[in-house]
Amino acid sequence: EVMLVESGGGLVQPGGSLRLSCTASGFTFGKYAMSWLRQAPGKGLEWVSAINNRGGKTNYLDSVKGRFTISRDNAKNTLYLQMNSLKAEDMGVYYCNARRASRDYWGQGTQVTVSS
């Protein structure tokens, strides 16, 4: 069974940091490109960041560049998103996504709340 399980969300004050994790099972993690996406309350799904299967290439949404860092540990089947200098507009449910050819897997999401 394919599973992607996100964790690490929570409540943080503006300017604070969180580290999200996404643990994968049921497929060959190291062969898949991975992404983080988020959905703010009342809004659509927004792509945040992506990393290629070996971790050598990353991309970011302009608004998170310099604040967020995506990384992966293929030996641990885990994807990470280090989020620093968090802002209210970063708030939402964060999802990890695995993609390879026609295969597309999603986690259940983890809530990030940025509030004082």
Describe the structure.
This protein is an all-beta fold. Helix content is 0%, strand content 54%. It has strands at 3-7, 10-12, 18-25, 33-39, 45-51, 58-60, 68-73, 78-83, 92-100, 103-106, 110-114. Strands 2, 4, 5, 6, 9, 10 and 11 form a seven-stranded mixed beta sheet that branches. The chain is globular, with a radius of gyration of 13 Å.
What is the CA–CA distance across the termini? Answer: 40 Å
**Major sheet:** 7 strands, mixed
Runs in which pLDDT lies below 50 for 5 or more consecutive residues are none
Radius of gyration, in Å, reads 13 Å
- The secondary-structure element order is EEEEEEEEEEE
C-alpha geometry: globular
Q: What is the overall number of helices? A: 0
**Helix share of residues?**
under 10%
Output the structural class.
Answer: mainly beta
Q: Count the E strands.
A: 11
Strand content: over 45%
